[in-house]
Amino acid sequence: MAGAIWSVGEVADGAATRLSTEAATVARRLAEASGRESAAVLVAADPAGPAAELAGYIPRVITVVSHLADERPPAAVAAARIAALARVEEPAYIVIGATPDGRDLAGCLAVMLGVGVLANAIAVGWDADAGPVVEESVLGGRILTSSAFSADRGIVLLTPNVIAAEAAGTPGRVEAVAVDDVADLPAVAVLDRVAAAAAAAPIEEARVVVAGGRGVGSPAGFAIVSELADLLGGAVGATRAAVDAGWIDYSQQIGQTGKTVRPALYLALGISGAIQHKVGMQAAETIVAVNRDPDAPLAEYADLYVVGDLFEVGPAVAAEIRGRRG
Amino acid sequence: MRIVVLVKPVPDTTGTERLGDDLRLDRASSPPIVNPNDEYAVEQALRLVEAHGGEITLLTMAPAGATETMRKALAMGAHGGVLVSDDALAGACALSTARVLAAALATLEFDLVLCGIASSDGGGGVVASGVATLCGLPYLSYAGSVEVTDDRVRIHRLHATGYMVLEAPLPALVVVTQIAVGEPRYASLKGIMAARSRVIRSLSLADLGLDPAAVGGAAASTRVLGVRPPAVRGATRVVRGSAADAAREIVDFLDERRFI
Ligand SMILES: Cc1cc2nc3c(=O)[nH]c(=O)nc-3n(C[C@H](O)[C@H](O)[C@H](O)COP(=O)(O)OP(=O)(O)OC[C@H]3O[C@@H](n4cnc5c(N)ncnc54)[C@H](O)[C@@H]3O)c2cc1C
Ligand SMILES: Nc1ncnc2c1ncn2[C@@H]1O[C@H](COP(=O)(O)O)[C@@H](O)[C@H]1O
Fold first, then answer.
1. For ligand 2, is residue B127 a contact (CB within 6 Å)?
2. CB–CB of B14 and A257 under 8 A?
3. B2-219 has which CATH code?
4. Do residues B129 and A108 make contact, with C-beta atoms less than 8 angstroms apart?
């Protein structure tokens, strides 16, 4: 299947991540637009379940069973195996979700296969002459570029939540493949896996995100952020300033060096809305901000901008919601 | 311990820069800064050298003028630098960057290489894993903490629901996150003075034995077709007044949009 379009599957808690279904959707659409074949590749210790899920989005799922997976970081294991497979099947383009593992994998594969990478993709189309045309957000979101590969091969890193996964009309087939000639990368040992004290609700999939910034002032200040998140059925997000201050976990950081979210509602408390934060949340359908500064950058792109003190307005909003719900 | 930190000069995107009519960055409006994510790597290197002794060398691939930016990182306390610079590198892609940095690393002696998590000017966080793969170095990324014992490095690799403890023998390449060491230090006046006399060695592609046709702008694996500004959102409704009034307005608004 030389010239095919691949996506790479990622597994979390035994299931295919939503981003892998988004990447599979992109690969399938590119294949449809170009009359090529498409496949999702999955390297995992126990791929059956996630492979079946991915098959809902793409005609073919190639699984590589790897028992190394538990003893090494995932990207290194996947890179060596996907590269070996790619040398045999010669896909043209590979779509990978831009998670930490996905970025690691893309860098390894790029040098192993000698291909370019278009990172931070927020839209991917097909052009008969240029191949995949990738829209990227660069310079911290200040401009959008559209780019293509110079050769007829390349890797696209897909930003989470920019494309809605869409199931295929007919489910695909799952095929287990054995790979030979695996040139494993230098060994890195996984000594331990530690779960965070209390894993916060993941922000990437939340319909509502209530986020706090430097204005929240302290870890205790996040109580009002959490309270509103609970009332609205949402997850708690944060700016880099709040994370750097140690008030909340890095896993909740939104923005250029954190996560990209696309919730229906983004409620920002004590956040100025700097460009590096904006790129991670500007795709929210509705943005509401509470800030005591009338001129913070968020005043230019929020739908509703409330000038006020979050420690007065926040509790008043909580009380108002409770009051209306009776 | 000999540590090499990969640092990239980038345009300052924290607010003062402007885009020209052609949507290219008006470079005059923003002198380059050290990629903010790489400052965390420099800070991590300084902490390790403070604890274990040793030297820090900065490695940069950039136009010749980048020595000015490198001095900003030297002023934090690094000991010297290597700048790979060549006219043929203008427009180089991430793949070329990884190849050039790997070739430059091969000329240096080190126990540890530290990188930032991504370039702020549009980098995809892919160069570091490319460099490690090309150099055959153990690759440890997304470090929330870094610890070095005699001949091994151990990190906490952050992920959504906790962290993994990873360990590898030295020499190795580690990608540092912002939370491994917290805010990078400011350069002291003494540091700024000292940085002036630090040696920054320049290397060309020829010095590295690399073919400009294979790794430079001429060989770029990607190309830009067009640029445009991002879409603007609709008008903003601004609310002022007492907390109780503001709260009612917010909840009305949320209710209209079915969030209550
Ligand atoms: C390379 C790079 C990458 C970055 N990546 C990220 C990223 O991923 N995510 C990110 O968020 N940032 C990122 N940043 C940092 C970014 O530039 C901003 O510094 C950061 O987003 C500011 O966070 P903030 O809005 O919480 O703080 P500030 O900008 O300090 O804003 C705090 C706001 O709170 C308001 N406030 C204070 N007290 C109150 C109160 N009682 N009630 C109401 N309002 C109040 C103030 O008026 C102010 O507007 C990055 C920067 C760089 C250079
Ligand atoms: N031109 C460069 N010179 C030195 N280091 C670089 C260069 N480009 C990238 N890096 C390093 O690689 C990391 C990831 O970069 P990127 O893949 O461009 O996002 C950066 O944080 C730097 O540590």
1. yes
2. no
3. 3.40.50.620
4. yes
